[in-house]
Design brief:
Blueprint: E1 28-36, E2 42-50, E3 53-62, E4 65-71, E5 80-88, E6 94-103, E7 106-115, E8 121-125, H1 132-137, H2 140-145
């Protein structure tokens, strides 16, 4: 049973919220990976268009509305590649990202600190402990579920 007050319109008069952005994909959208920044102006989402390839979708709110950037985990065609959100810096200017690739017989794992405004890597390390930002700001849910720390 639903109780309505004077400010709430009856159910038949309510409208669904408008979509702020839409994007089609044939990939697997990992909705449980959705991470929203503390200031609410950025979100990340893991999308897997191929069996061994998982990219990160970055949604950012600017003066024109929500924008989406699809960020691939690698530039070459590796046998395996993924990119995943790993945490937010408390200053709302940076985010933490983990990247793993396997290409041409070479395995690479990197832990990166990105600039939120440009989505460019500012610093990176081969282990999270070698990057001070990862030591301090990694998301506990990421740390508990990632394969990058195996």
């Amino acid at each position: 049973m639903e109780v309505a007050d004077a400010k709430t319109p009856p159910p038949e008069k309510r409208q669904a919220p408008a979509s702020v952005l839409s994007r089609c994909t044939y990939g697997q959208v990992w909705t449980s990976s959705l991470a929203i920044s503390p200031d609410g102006r950025m979100m990340t989402l893991a999308v897997q268009p191929l069996e061994n390839w998982r990219e990160m979708w970055a949604f950012r709110l600017d003066e024109t509305g929500w924008q989406l950037e699809v960020i691939p985990p690698a530039t070459e065609r590796p046998e395996l590649a993924y990119l995943e959100f790993a945490g937010w810096a408390p200053d709302n200017k940076q985010l933490l990202v983990a990247r793993e690739t396997f290409a041409n017989g070479r395995h690479t794992t990197r832990f990166e600190l990105w600039n939120r405004a440009t989505l460019k890597v500012e610093k990176h390390a081969d282990k999270p402990g070698n990057l001070n930002a990862f030591y301090r700001w990694q998301d506990p849910l990421w740390k508990g579920g990632t394969m990058a720390l195996r």
